[in-house]
Amino acid sequence: MARILGYIAASLDGFVAAADDSLDWLFAYNDMDLGEHDYTKFLNRIRTVAMGRATYDFLERSGEPWAYGAQRVIVVTSRPIPDPCGPLTTRSDVDALITELRGLTDGDVWMLGGGKLQMAFMERGALDEIEIYLMPEILGGGPLLFPATGLRASPRLLGAKVLDRGCVRLHYALS
Description:
This protein is of the alpha/beta class. The chain has five helices and eight strands. The protein has a single domain (4-173), classed as Dihydrofolate Reductase, subunit A (3-Layer(aba) Sandwich). The protein has helices at 24-27, 39-44, 53-62, 94-102, 115-123, and strands at 4-11, 46-52, 72-76, 89-91, 108-112, 129-135, 156-162, 168-173.
């Protein structure tokens, strides 16, 4: 059974992007040394990437090369993607997707992107662990790490570590 994981950065005040959906504040840390927690090392252990449509649209607009050629990519959307910027499939039913992902036996799943889809998985008890990288930035607004849905949970802390340039890694088990 595949583990479903979150790996996400947030500002100190709990936002995953600025109010204009910009990630410039985060890209300023691209040279940061995360050691064993480096993004590339994380991505190399992932077999499937699941993302919401807003995240896919952000990646498409960025013009950057498709970074997920080695992974199976699933975009959760009800709208067609006429000319995808990389190999992917789409799903519209989150519950059916969770069942599909849990049935995978070839590696872990990463919930890529903002908090909306991660929260949908958390509400269903389907996000196993999350790594949150708190950046020493205060954005004052934007999409929240955890959108308010009324969900109450008590994640179990697996680890906390101060990293380069004032970043703090928090690792929690959710289920």
